[in-house]
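Format is sequence with structure; example below:
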Amino acid sequence: MDIKNIIYAFACLSFAVVTGAAIYEHIAVVPRWSAAPPVSLSMFQGKYGLNPTPFWIAIHPVTLLLLFASIILFWKTGSRSYLLITSAGYVLVLIITFAFFVPELIAITGTPYSEHMNDSLTKRAKQWEILSLVRLSFLIILAIIVFLGLTKSKVQLI
């Protein structure tokens, strides 16, 4: 196995980590905090509150770097289109994430704790969750695409 294939494999692994972490959050974390804010937001507060930010800040640049390196290394192969589609889609997801999802998540989860559920905040949290599931579905499709490209790497394009 040559270095090109190793880099592509790591790009797939990194993208799978992003997708897997998003799936985990939607199964284990999002339903808990979105259930009845601000009562349900206590998991983010205090000295030992949940802080997923360091993970997301670290994984996105690594994934982008590996995808872009793979595009360069596999430019003249059948994998190119798979890598381009995945990379373009991922960049689009990141732009939307930083423009909408992150600010809205910070606004919701940063709400001070209260023992009373806020209907308006709960509605915003549920809308965020639904839209985030659409985003997650798109990431899963992109993950499948990037993995399919592994089977095309030996095909040389003219």
